[in-house]
């Protein structure tokens, strides 16, 4: 039986149960501001193994390690000046930095897939309290079966991994709804490894430097998790649809209607008021809603390619990419 504890009504019980479960080397699903994570003690090989097993995740795909504060972060990684500036501005928050690991790091090599760098992030919200109380960094990928959509609620986690998990902490819907933005600073160049919940424009504004996109930086190879097909719902996905075909579920943006909409099985709007933050927060839940509806195909209306729109389009494009076992 999976125990689900609501952190809003029973925070103390949630913290105690999480720490006890983590100390046993078992993963716990924790709420972060981006998506729900499947967290385990980053220094414990058995615990990390269980994450890979539960998710069916390839072991060459490194995990992000989550810390409670700068002291913990500094114990594990070296900050270059630009990364430090980013961390000071945006932590706790939806930013992951890939940084060189320090010699005294006891992060288990399984967690970082044997790399000499660490993807590190200080999350916002209850997950940070868990790390603080536990006292050690937590490795946490999104709490979903590998290749599926990331969970933005405890219900999503329970539906996907519930039978395998001892404990889920429920803090309600994730505030941001998209995974963290991942960057790596390389000789004063800021490279984007994954667009996400932190707007790249905010990074550019703070540093006064351009952020290099994967195409220009070759970074897709550097973030091994960025396989083309990812974040996939069960339904097929049509990107940037100009019209709606009969029986499709339409997910649109900004109240913009599409021709053929009257024949849609269901119409969902990510943000009728054209707010990209609201759209990001709704994206994964709406894909799951479309799946639950039994849609064969989801058509996505156009999304503006600015601000968080970049990360939203990235996730929809991955959802639309050919799946494993399908012809490209
Ligand atoms: O918002 C998030 O980042 C969520 C929450 C739970 O924190 N976590 C998450 O983790 O999205 P995951 O495992 O689904 O994605 C981690 C990504 C992968 O694409 C992986 O390749 C990349 O981070 N990554 C981790 N460590 C890395 C490293 N040392 N170098 C390059 N990429 C790394
Ligand atoms: Mg993931």
Automatic annotation (TrEMBL):
InterPro entries assigned: DHBP_synth_RibB-like_a/b_dom, Sua5-like_dom, Sua5/YwlC_C, Sua5_C, T(6)A37_SUA5, TC-AMP_synthase_SUA5
EC number: 2.7.7.87
Keyword ATP-binding: yes
Compartmental location: Cytoplasm
Catalytic activity: L-threonine + hydrogencarbonate + ATP = L-threonylcarbamoyladenylate + diphosphate + H2O
Keywords assigned: ATP-binding, Cytoplasm, Nucleotide-binding, Nucleotidyltransferase, Transferase, tRNA processing
Residue span, YrdC-like domain: 12-198
Chief location: cytoplasm
Organism domain of life: Bacteria
Presence of keyword RNA-binding: no
Top class in the EC scheme: transferase
A matching Pfam family: Sua5_C
Role of this protein: Required for the formation of a threonylcarbamoyl group on adenosine at position 37 (t(6)A37) in tRNAs that read codons beginning with adenine.
Family, per entry: Belongs to the SUA5 family.
PANTHER family referenced in this protein's UniProt entry, alphabetically: SUA5, THREONYLCARBAMOYL-AMP SYNTHASE
Protein name as it appears in the record: Threonylcarbamoyl-AMP synthase
Species, as recorded: Rhizobium herbae
């Amino acid at each position: 039986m999976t125990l689900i504890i609501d952190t809003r009504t029973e925070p103390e019980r949630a913290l105690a149960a999480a720490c006890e479960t983590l100390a046993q080397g078992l993963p716990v699903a924790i709420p972060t501001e981006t998506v729900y994570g499947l967290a385990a003690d980053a220094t414990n090989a058995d615990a990390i193994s269980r994450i890979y097993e539960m998710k069916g995740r390839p072991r060459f795909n490194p995990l992000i390690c989550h810390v409670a504060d700068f002291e913990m972060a500094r114990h594990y990684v070296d900050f270059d000046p630009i990364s430090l500036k980013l961390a000071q501005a945006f932590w706790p928050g939806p930013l992951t930095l890939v940084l060189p690991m320090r010699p005294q790091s006891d992060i288990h090599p399984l967690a970082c897939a044997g790399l000499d760098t660490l993807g590190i992030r200080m999350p916002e919200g209850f997950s940070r309290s868990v790390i603080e109380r536990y006292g050690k960094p937590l490795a946490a990928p999104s709490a979903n079966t590998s290749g599926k959509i990331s969970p933005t609620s405890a219900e999503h986690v329970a539906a996907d991994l519930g039978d395998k998990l001892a404990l889920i902490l429920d803090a309600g819907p994730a505030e941001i709804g998209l995974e963290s933005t991942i960057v790596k600073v390389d000789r004063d160049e800021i490279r984007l490894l994954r667009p996400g919940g932190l707007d790249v424009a905010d990074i550019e504004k703070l540093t006064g430097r351009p952020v290099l996109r994967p195409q220009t930086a070759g970074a897709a190879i550097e973030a091994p998790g960025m396989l083309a097909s990812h974040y996939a719902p069960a339904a097929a996905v049509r990107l940037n649809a100009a019209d709606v075909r009969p029986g499709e579920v339409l997910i649109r943006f900004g109240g913009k209607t599409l021709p053929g909409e009257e024949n849609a099985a269901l119409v969902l709007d990510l943000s009728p008021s054209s707010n990209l933050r609201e759209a990001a927060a709704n994206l994964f839940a709406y894909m799951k809603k479309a799946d639950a509806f039994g849609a064969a195909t989801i058509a996505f209306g156009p999304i503006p390619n600015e601000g968080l729109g970049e990360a939203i389009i990235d996730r929809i494009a991955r959802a639309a990419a050919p799946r494993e076992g399908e012809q490209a």
